[in-house]
UniProtKB/TrEMBL annotation:
Residues 185-344 form the Glycosyltransferase 61 catalytic domain. InterPro entries: Glyco_transf_61_cat, Glycosyltransferase_61. This is Glycosyltransferase family 61 protein. Keywords: Glycoprotein, Glycosyltransferase, Transferase.
């Protein structure tokens, strides 16, 4: 099923690697568990706080302190298996993502909701290496109010320990999650929220980050939202918000990702075959791209580096795409603009079985295949370069009518 690269010999190493990640995760959780049992957070330098899930917090508040509107309830979607795999081929490893590849065929779509929360403090942190953004929401009693991709981390300790007062806002509409500037997170987590609020005429009160990418501003303007019309916040200053409206969604909810496709829909018939190259990227480059590309070219493919295209060009290209082949990476998220019924072939490391693109393809009504590649060595899985079996790529493409 997976070409000439057998995964049997890699299974013990994969299991050992997974056990290592699991052990490290439990060790890091020990101080947090101590705080849960009453140890003051300041004894750990505010690196951890007591946590409370948002729904539980709202449930115990009086009506004048918190509210919760369920815009669309949770439910389960049934999705087809990847075209080139059986159920037994699907990885059960999902600790890093909260679900595994084997969970996608019966994918649990979480609620879309808007919570109203009084007297909240938002604090922010960024990673020193990649500059990834992490928001945390602190309640009036000093606990972390936890939601998807909004969680208190040791990174927030400096902002907490300083005790400085933040900028005060009366009312604010909040959509921002971890790594919002990442192309994939922007298209699947944040742009759908903006469209939801726009369709409900509730964009007023939106607060934007000062640091934004060109793609963010361009895509907002394309859906009729002018970034200059809204207040901004800085990573360096906490926010004290009297009336916070917090929007929660599932990144791969079909109604939300399809709203993005509909907002940018083109009218041309999709006929193009596109290969997204990562040859200029830091990690997950195809080591044998020079071997694969001539074969793809003979099969009618065109090769693109997404970073060479303006956002509008990326959208137009995907609207015309019938078959999309790419290594695992943010560029694959552009499938959100591909018309339903197309085909996606993801080349990925089986030792890092990320289910997100399978879930996104399924939600968009695209036919998905997962091609396992041999991974090189690197400290982080996302930095490992890949070698794919060219024959397995050709076999998968020949299954497409």
């Amino acid at each position: 099923m997976q070409g000439s690269f057998s995964t049997d010999s890699a299974a013990p190493l994969e299991t050992l690697r997974s056990a290592g990640y699991s052990a490290l995760w439990h060790i890091r959780k020990m101080p947090e568990r101590a705080i849960r049992y009453g140890i003051p957070p300041q004894l750990f330098g505010w690196r951890w706080r007591r946590r409370e899930p948002l729904f539980e917090y709202v449930a115990r508040q009086p009506d004048d302190r918190a509210s919760l509107e369920i815009v669309r309830g949770a439910y389960t979607e049934s999705y087809p298996l990847p075209r080139n795999m059986t159920k037994g081929d699907l990885s059960a490893q999902g600790a890093l993502w909260g679900y595994a590849i084997r969970d996608v065929p019966n994918y649990r779509v979480s609620e879309t909701y808007i919570a109203g929360l009084a007297d909240m403090r938002m604090v922010f942190a960024t990673t020193p290496d990649k500059g990834d953004f992490f928001p945390a929401m602190i309640g009036p009693d000093g606990q972390s109010i936890e939601a998807r991709e909004t969680s208190y981390r040791p990174l927030h300790a400096e902002a907490s320990a300083s005790g400085r007062c933040g900028r005060r806002l009366g009312r604010a509409m909040w959509i921002w999650e971890r790594a919002y500037h990442n192309h994939s997170h922007w298209l699947t987590a944040h742009l759908p929220k903006l469209l939801l609020l726009k369709n409900r005429n509730e964009v007023d009160g939106l607060v934007l980050p000062e640091r934004r990418t060109k793609v963010m501003d361009h895509s907002m303007r394309m859906i009729g939202i002018e970034p200059e019309d809204y207040r901004t916040f800085s990573f360096d200053d906490p926010l004290e918000i009297d009336d916070l409206r917090f929007v929660g969604t599932d990144r791969f909810a079909p109604d939300l990702v399809n709203s993005v496709r509909a907002a940018f829909a083109g009218s041309e018939e999709p006929t193009r075959k596109i290969f997204i190259s990562r040859r200029n990227s830091r990690g997950r480059k195809l080591v044998n791209e020079d071997e694969l590309w001539p074969v793809l070219r003979l099969l009618g493919f065109e090769r693109f580096l997404m970073e060479d295209l303006e956002f509008e060009q990326q959208v137009e290209l995907m609207q015309q795409t019938r078959i999309l082949v790419a290594p695992h990476g943010a560029g694959l998220t552009n499938m959100i603009f591909c018309p339903a019924g197309g085909h996606v072939l993801e080349i990925a490391d089986p030792g890092f079985p990320n289910p997100n693109f399978y879930a996104l393809s399924s939600a968009l009504g695209l036919n998905y295949a997962l091609l396992h590649a041999r991974a090189g060595k690197a400290d982080h899985p996302l930095d490992r370069d890949l070698t794919v079996d060219v024959a397995s790529v050709v076999r998968s493409l020949r299954q497409i009518a």
